[in-house]
Amino acid sequence: MEESAPAARDNLPPMPLEGHYQRVNTPLRRLTARERNVLVAGVVVTCATLLALILATAGDSRPGPAAGCVSAVVAGRVGGEPVNGCGEKAQEICARSANYDNPRARTIAGKCDEAGIVVTRAEVAAAAAAKAKGLG
User: Fold this and answer.
1) Of the candidates 70, 66, 78, which has an alpha carbon nearest to the alpha carbon of residue 96?
2) Euclidean distance between CA atoms 134 and 100, whole angstroms
């Protein structure tokens, strides 16, 4: 008495993206031997160039300061600030840094020690006096 109606799912079309992943990720064709060789050669040349650039720029190409000179890069207002001096100027730089206790002064003092520049108490006092007068 009751007619069996076909199930609603039997009348539906297949899902629109059925098999989509396989279609998208299947290569259209295989690479030829020549194309593979060009690809391998390109990768080798790129790696060799990168290696050459890294080796050419590696290392420290900046020479150290001469004897009696001090050279330090300290934190400045907008980045690294070079502090350089030779002879009397180096003595002044080292004496001035001895009056402070901050990272900048400690960096300069360390470079003064590396350069073998000895600062006397009189030089430190003179630098402090010049600072008080507004000359340093």
Assistant:
1) 70
2) 16
pLDDT for residue 65 is more than 70: yes
Residues 71 and 89: beta-carbon distance below 8 Å: no
Question: Which residues are within 8 A (CB) of 128 and not within 5 positions of it... i.e. 6 or more apart?
Answer: 99
Going from N- to C-terminal start, the domains of the chain cover 20-56, 69-133
Q: Is the dihedral of CA 15, 21, 24, 26 positive or negative?
A: negative
Least-confidence region, from 21-25, 46-50, 86-90: 21-25
Task: Return the beta strands (E) in 1-132 as ranges.
Answer: 69-75, 80-86
Q: Where are the alpha helices (DSSP H) in 69-102?
A: 88-97
**Residue found under tokens 């001895």:** 98
- Looking at residue 19, its pLDDT comes to 79
